[in-house]
Amino acid sequence: MPKLFTPITFRGMEIKNRIVMSPMCMYSCKEDGIITPFHLTHLASRAVGQVGLIITEATAVQPEGRISVEDLGIWDDIHVEGLKDLNEQIHAYGAKAGIQLAHAGRKAVVDSDIFAPSSFRFNSKSKVPIGMDAEDIERTVEAFRQAARRAKEAAFDVVEIHGAHGYLINQFLSPLANK
């Protein structure tokens, strides 16, 4: 424990201590994916509490890629302003701000069509996804790229790509989801 409260440097970025808040979905948005006062209070309070790096919840790069319709989004430039306000609050307390960019793939629970590597649903209650073709894949890669650009505009210090837990990137690597 003696190093827990000492700074650490990653790729030239110093974090004031080794306490990291991992991304946790709060399911507190409206369908527009715009950050809410709840997020500002919840995440900024962690900075007040001296967490060194605060990673915002899985944030959807496309509206159809949300885990639920209440998920935070970064698929449009309209999302940047609120996220920038959040990061100003986080930075005011000396913490670094991270964002987890995500796409749920076949695990998405939204009203629109969902997309996955293959047309195999996640479970008996899930929608059957549209199997992605090369154009869909390119569109999604571009969505991640644009989301990373927006994250930079919103003053995030760290960008994490969610490639686990059976979500889209993980689905491409799984013989259960990619047939």
TrEMBL record:
Keywords: Flavoprotein, FMN, NADP, Oxidoreductase. Residues 3-179 form the NADH:flavin oxidoreductase/NADH oxidase N-terminal domain. The keyword Ribosomal protein does not apply. GO terms for molecular function: FMN binding; NADP binding; NADPH dehydrogenase activity. Pfam families: Oxidored_FMN. It comes from the Bacteria. Gene3D superfamilies: Aldolase class I (3.20.20.70). Its cofactor is FMN. The keyword tRNA processing does not apply. PANTHER family: NADPH DEHYDROGENASE C23G7.10C-RELATED (PTHR43303). This is NADPH dehydrogenase. It comes from Oceanobacillus oncorhynchi. The gene is namA_3.
